[in-house]
Amino acid sequence: MLLLFSLKLVIRSCVLSRCHLLHLQAWEDQEDKFHLEQAKLRSSIRIHDSRAKPIDLLAQYASSAEEGAQDLSGVEMHEPYTYLNGLTMSDLEDLLEDIKVYMELEQGKLKVDLL
Questions:
Q1: Closest CA to 53 of 104, 115, 105, 101
Q2: Is 75 contained in some domain?
């Protein structure tokens, strides 16, 4: 009897742990999606205010290619490599870090979309 009771407690604990893990994963996925949306919003604001960073223009280029033509608010689209012209080494390093962040956020979004 005691063994059966202990077994039930272990099973219940495993089920609760699994539910808790699923809840935490859903929360993390929602947080990743939120951060991606916020990054896109900040980028859009900088573009609209004519103070775009290279990552903003590259992200806008990539999203317009993925989602089809959109209202680009008067922003003239160029080939992506042209956004690198005139950047200093420091600017290029910052751009590389920004690209890594966008890639991580996009991969998190892809994971959420597949679930």
A1: 101
A2: yes
pLDDT (tens digit per residue) in 54-103 = 998 888 888 776 665 555 554 567 788 888 889 999 999 999 999 998 88
Percent above pLDDT 70 for the chain: 70
pLDDT for residue 5: 61
- Please, are residues 98 and 52 in contact by the beta-carbon 8 Å criterion? no
Which residues span the domain enclosing 107? Answer: 27-114
Domain assignment present for 89: yes
Structure tokens at 46: 């900088």
In a domain, 33, yes or no: yes
Residue with tokens 């390093």: 93
What is the number of domains present in the chain?
A: 1
